[in-house]
Amino acid sequence: MDTITGGGFSKVKDADEEIQTICDEVKCQVEEKRNEAYAVFKAVQYKSQVVQGFNYDIKVHVGGSSYLHLRVWKKLPCYGGEAVVTDVEDHHDKDPIQPF
């Protein structure tokens, strides 16, 4: 993980297995919030921020030319380590990840 100062976000990084695992964990939450089912749900890029756990802003490919931006808060392991979707934005096919 990059050195992060003052609660800021890391640089944009390509998604890895850990980020895909988080996306797999929250897929049902996203589908419920969006009232849609996704056959494709592949993490592409992400930024992270340390805040009593971790905030992740993740760009997710959901099929065709469609992408979502997710804000996921992952609790610290001592608090259960659960991942919770706090925001979802759509229509981000060409947009870079921006904090929202």
UniProtKB/TrEMBL annotation:
Keywords: Cytoplasm, Immunity, Protease inhibitor, Thiol protease inhibitor
Alphabetical list of PROSITE patterns matching this protein: CYSTATIN
Chief site of localization: cytoplasm
GO CC terms: cytosol
GO molecular function, one term: cysteine-type endopeptidase inhibitor activity
Annotated Cystatin domain residues: 4-88
GO biological process per UniProt: cellular response to bacterial lipoprotein; immune system process
Subcellular location: Cytoplasm
Database matches in Pfam families: Cystatin (PF00031)
Top-level taxonomic group: Eukaryota
Family under the similarity heading: Belongs to the cystatin family.
PANTHER family documented for this protein: CYSTATIN 14A, TANDEM DUPLICATE 1-RELATED, CYSTATIN FAMILY MEMBER
Protein name according to UniProt: Cystatin-B
Gene: CSTA
